[in-house]
Amino acid sequence: MVSRYVAGMAMLPPWLRSPGYDVDLAVEADTGQMQRWLVGLVPFRDLIASGHARLLGPSRLARAFPTWFDTSYFAEGLRRAEQHRSRQAMPA
C-alpha cells in the first residue's frame, strides 16, 4: 500500500490536512516498507533502491531525511525479542 494524500482535502480528517505551508520535502512510500525501516529491519537506502520509497524535494533535505528518525530504539527491542524467542525455542 502506497500512502499518498491528494484529492478531497475537505473530506480528510484534520490531522491529514495541510496547514497551508509550502511542502519542503514529500515522501511517497509503501507504508509496510517504511515501517520495516522505522523499526530498524532495513536501511533507508534499500527502500530507495528498490523503489519502495521516493523523496521529492531538495537533495539536501532528501539526504538528511533518514537522520531525522532514531530507528535504533525499536531495533534494539526487536533484537532482544528475537533472542528471547530463540532461547525459548531451544530444546533443553
What can you see in these coordinates?
The chain has helices spanning 31-38, 44-50, 59-64, 72-89, and strands at residues 2-3, 26-30, 53-56. The protein has one domain. By secondary structure, the chain is α+β, with helices and mostly antiparallel strands. The chain contains 4 helices and 3 strands. The protein is elongated. Mean pLDDT is 81; it is low at 1-9. The chain has a 3-stranded antiparallel sheet.
Strand order of the largest sheet: 1-2-3
Mean pLDDT: 81
- How many strand units? 3
Query: How many strands, which pairing sense, and closed or not: the largest β-sheet?
Result: 3 strands, antiparallel
Instruction: Tell me the structural class.
Output: alpha+beta
Count up the helices.
Answer: 4
Query: What is the approximate shape?
Result: elongated
Rg over alpha carbons: 18 Å
Q: Helix and strand string, N-terminal first?
A: EEHHEHH
Instruction: Report low-confidence residues grouped into runs of 5 or more.
Output: 1-9
List the domain count as a whole number: 1
Share in β-strands? 5-15%
Q: Helix coverage percent of residues?
A: 40-55%
Termini separation: 42 Å
